[in-house]
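ok so for the tutorial part 2 we go from a plain amino acid sequence to predicted structure tokens. step 1 is just haveing the sequence, like this:
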Amino acid sequence: MPSSNALCNLFHALMWVVALVLFEGCCKPQPVIDVDGVTLPESFRETHWMEVLNTLPSDNNRAKQLTHLQNADSAFWTRWCENILQLGPAEDSSTMKVLGQFLSDMRPMLEAIDTTSGRPEILLRESQCLRDGLKRMQVMLVDSPIPNVVWMPSGFNFAVYPTEDQLCIGLDWFLGKGHPIHAELPPSRFPAYRLARMHPDRMALDALQGWIVVSNQQRIPPAPRTVDLWLFWGKVMHILSRCMPEASPSELMNWTQEEWNWAVAHERATWAEMQPQERMFSKQPREVMRWFQEGPFTRVGNIPQDSPDRLGIFLGWRAMQAAVAAHPEWSDHDILEWSDSQAILRAYRP
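step 2 — the prediction. this is what the tokens look like for a chain of 350 residues:
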């Protein structure tokens, strides 16, 4: 007859087997969405604005130059001219003089784009990645709009500029870590942690995340609480991970692998900081945004300074993963429409 110690050891061994089975079941990835044969809408358009600028008539005929830009994409020209760069009225040919000055002043930036994020092979790779992501989103969320895409120089004003029908990507924000031109940027707007993330490999991922956020921002209630943004970002990261299955979890979070490892190792302790009622249901904007804003680390409570930033997004995504595992009957559309945070809270046990 086995001894009590042997029975105890056998019991613990069985419990480890059960735990491993449960762990594998919860973390089993969803099947990758097949986009073979899937096409984007016939109306889909992709514009490379650097090419438009490179073919701008050089004879100083302002009316001719204006017509060239309008013919390339009149809606984007107006948006780029008046909102992104704020050059002046898009319909006024005199704005061409201001554009000429911009192109002259920004020549180092434009040349940097040509040798980094704007290189044909990089644009082709990121374009294909973004198109595949949009196709997967089209399969998952059949009613979701598909934006036209514009690759542009933004004068370091915007990395991603989503509108109701266009997804504009600022090539100058993705020159690569340590690019010499970064030394000329104001540190107040471009701190070290931001510069480290401005890499060409990020273009498709950042663009699609920006589109998902903006096209679903109506799901965020007025004066959102921490729990509201926690739930919203959990949905965003779920959709993004389904659209970009080749990206690792750390890449999806725009973290290093070391930062991801830190977050996983400290997940329970971090959740203990967020979970209290006064934090989870806080309506104080400054306190809420500490969990979700970019920075050198997450500045909340007792979370140490060696933490990565935006741990609220990480916790929202992990909670959503737990809820999806607990509710296999939920479709991607169901998840996006879900508004009851209690179901997610009940499923999440880090």
